[in-house]
Amino acid sequence: MSELTQIMPGGWLSENQMLIGALWSSPTFMPSLGRLLAVGMAVGLVAVLPILRMVRRRRLRTLGSLHGARAGAALAADLVLVMFPFMVLMLVMLQTLWLMRETVIVHYAAYNAARSARVHLCQMPPESFLLTYVELRREAGCTNDRWRAENAARISLISASPPWGIPCQQQCQVPETVLRAIAERTGTGPQADAIIDQAHYAFDPENVYLSVEMERSGLLSAMTAGKPQPVRARLTFRHYVVYGFGPIFGKKRQDGYYYRETTAEMVLL
């Protein structure tokens, strides 16, 4: 259970309001999702138009009293011409929807990294010595442990990783003990090995880049007891793209796999 859920009444609602507010203020969430949504709508429109045209032609043949056998043969020819491109376009739409899903996950991972950083990173001192002294006294005990924020982001990115094992390009350090504990607590203990196998992609250093920073507070914020500084997290994740659509959606890695980068920037005020 998070600190927010423990402290605030109606913790679940408050936590989700905080997430929605962070997504709404994110400079990357709506543009990234909007581009993919535009692609999906365009592909859907292109896929539907030939079918509508085929239906219209069939109605015209019926109105023209075309012989039944000839009309059936013409319809079969239309289906042959339409179905293959329609199936390809549907696969492109599915890949687009999958990338939209992963875009949401990447922003959620950046949000979790920012939350972890707010707990463990020391707040940046303001400009003056007096305010620095106030900050140091107020924030005594912070660890400045950036690994915890990165670990929180990578664990969140497991669900956006391909479910089959893709070899790490660099040495992976997967926290197997932590993942097994999470699997046990969430009732997915029998799938722990599969989760760990999937986690190798998220814990590959080549696939994730994270930067988290505390922003400097002004005079009023520094003198307000209990008011945390804003935290900015910027996360870049390399989505896996299936082979058939790799040249369309992504770039090719040295090992032959395709990826597409998504960058998420989240700010906790």
Structure description:
With 269 residues, the chain is an alpha+beta fold. It has one domain. The chain has ten helices and four strands, in the order H-H-H-H-H-H-H-H-E-H-E-H-E-E. The chain has helices at 3-7, 11-25, 29-63, 68-120, 129-138, 146-156, 176-185, 192-202, 219-223, 246-249; strands at residues 208-214, 231-241, 251-252, 258-268. A hairpin with a 5-residue loop joins strand 3 and strand 4. It starts with a helix and ends with a strand. Residues 1-10 have low confidence and may be disordered.
Helices and strands in order:
Layout: H1 3-7, H2 11-25, H3 29-63, H4 68-120, H5 129-138, H6 146-156, H7 176-185, H8 192-202, E1 208-214, H9 219-223, E2 231-241, H10 246-249, E3 251-252, E4 258-268
Antiparallel strand pairs: 1-2, 2-4, 3-4
Helix pairs in contact: 3-4, 4-6, 7-8
Largest sheet: 4 strands, antiparallel
Mean pLDDT rating: 78
Q: Helical proportion? A: 55-70%
CA gyration radius, whole angstroms: 25 Å
Summing up helix and strand content along with how strands pair, one would put the structural category as: alpha+beta
Total of DSSP H or I helical runs spanning 4+ residues:
10
Shape: globular
Uncertain spans: 1-10
Short description:
The protein has 269 residues and is of the alpha+beta class. 59% of the residues lie in helices and 12% in strands.
Characteristic terms for this protein:
4 strands, 269 residues, four-stranded antiparallel sheet, single chain, alpha+beta, globular
